[in-house]
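Me: I keep going back and forth on a fold encoding question. No explanation is needed for now; the record alone will do.

Assistant:
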Amino acid sequence: VEITRLSMPRWVQNGTEDSVVLDCEYNYSDEDQRLVVKWFLNDDPQPIYQWIPELNQRYASEKVKGKLNMDYTVSPSSQHTRYRALNLMKPTTELSGRYSCHVVSLLSQDAEDQVMVVYAPPRSFDFNYTKMSSESVVNFTCEADGVFPMPKITLLQLDLPERQASLVSGVKTITSSGKGGAYYVQVSREIRDWELTEEPTVFECVLSIPGTDYENQRKILYFPGSISGTWRSRAQTTCLLLLILFLLS
């Protein structure tokens, strides 16, 4: 027996797809007696699905019961390929991970694996800064909550009018996970006015989810020497666009 193709989505957003198909195509010969198809998820030694064609027996673990369409068949198919694939209904984040397909016979065996990320965008995503009245120290804070899997958050500094972007180093990161495995991530950095030019500076917080094409941004326009207080990225949007258009004109 030989697996010729393992196919599944690389990523899918939590609860947005009616169903996805994970297929394990293989070749076999008449000598491959007592064929068994098994699917595993991550490091669990117990299969989430097993099919023995000769006995017409199928098994689904508690992890996928209610989410696995047991009526699904591949097409075209034969007696030894009909129920080889997984058809997952409305996949959610607990079904994210590395899937491996094992095809075994008395003569031989083969296995292939691939990762499918089921991601959840953040429920909230904010970027703000706070400046104390007695100091020229500004604390920029970017935070995201309810996101899965663990996101990557970076802070960028864009000096105007040159439009040269650079990575803000020395950030402090706080992470935690809550019910259901979703993450809270906070990235912050204190910057002193004398570290900046006299021109306005754009700070950008970029959030991406590894293994997917998901990316989101928040921007803040900061004026060195500005008065004390707290400002959020959304309140700066109109002012930021007008200033950039003016400087680039």
Summary: The longest strand covers residues 109-119. Residues 41 and 72 are 19 Å apart (CA to CA).
